[in-house]
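Translate sequence into structure tokens.
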Amino acid sequence: MARVLVTDGRGSDLILRTLGKDDSRVTYKQTEPFTTRVRTPHSSKAKRDLDFRLVMQLEEGMRRTVEWFKNLFRGLVKDVKNLILLTASFECEGYQCTNLM
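Result follows.
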């Protein structure tokens, strides 16, 4: 299944590089009318209100974010497999269930 990504390529390039993937499954499209073309994030409010400080480069932050998501989904997959195994170990008839283990 192809994924559609509306971008100029800079953000997606970083994500793909971090994942070690190419863009062969990505379809690039032109930006839709009325879409903000330039987004310049800034952290002035976070600095002022939360004493936020930038402490790492974008590439390192992306690497850590990707690793965090990989670990999250590894855990979810393990939980789902355990749930399937647990469910398969019961034989149910109506509201009566018997543990087959």
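Note: Residues 58-88 form the longest helix (31 residues).
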